[in-house]
Amino acid sequence: MFITRPQAEMVRKSDALPGRGQEIATADKHFVSGHDLKGNYPEGHEKAFFALGCYWGAERKFWQSDGVWVTAVGNIAGFTPNPTYEEVCTGKTGHAEAVMVVYQPEKVSFEELLQLFWQSHDPTQGMRQGNDAGTQYRSGIYCTSDEQLRQAEQSRDQYQAELKTAGFGKITTEIIPAPQFYFAEEYHQQYLAKNPNGYCGLGGTGVSFPGCGG
């Protein structure tokens, strides 16, 4: 993605970029499904946010899942309001690149989304994911309910046991209630649908989530 010197440690709030009051312009509709990105979600649908490295490839993992109504990429868990992509890449906003996932629980459970999350990246790498280094590439689950938080923490503990057996280190995934999510610019939304040969740096550990059979 954007080439810059990686930021290995979280910026302090007092040193973060100031950002801006107005939202960054983005798409209105999902490029693949045509569904609204920012609202008009069907009744009964739920929302969660996942960070697992470069959000181009991460978003595709989720929009291809049955039961997911819409996805969008953006930035979360930092200090700078309405950051630009270039600002996030400096490491001076504190944000993680993340995917918003709006889903129908009757068709795809949060547990199934967690399985996809854990198996799609290496959650033990800290402030990097593969060749993508910097605080914006950290692993995170940002929950919109107490039940999501409980399930996310439980799944972390389950997967940690599997990873330890396979010789991996400690999971570094950030699991917290979802803070403000800022939509990324339009050209980032569903990037790999618009650019089928575009960059995707995701790679899992090869360790299956317990009980998912794969």
Describe the structure.
The chain is an alpha+beta fold and 214 residues long. It has a single domain, classed as Peptide Methionine Sulfoxide Reductase, Chain A. Helices cover 22% and strands 19% of the residues. The chain is built from five helices and eight strands; from the N terminus they run E-H-E-H-E-H-E-E-E-H-E-E-H. It is globular, with a radius of gyration of 16 Å. The model has no long low-confidence stretch (mean pLDDT 95).
Features:
8 strands; alpha+beta; 5 helices; 6-stranded mixed sheet; globular; Peptide Methionine Sulfoxide Reductase, Chain A; 214 residues
What number is the mean pLDDT? Answer: 95
Reading the helices and strands in chain order gives EHEHEHEEEHEEH
Q: Note the main sheet.
A: 6 strands, mixed
Shape call: globular
Please identify the top-level CATH class: Alpha Beta
* C-alpha termini separation: 30 Å
According to CATH, the fold-level topology is Peptide Methionine Sulfoxide Reductase, Chain A
Q: Which structural class matches the secondary elements?
A: alpha+beta
Q: Provide the CATH architecture.
A: 2-Layer Sandwich
Overall structural domain count: 1
Strand order of the largest sheet: 7-6-1-3-2-8
Going by CATH, the homologous superfamily would be Peptide methionine sulphoxide reductase MsrA
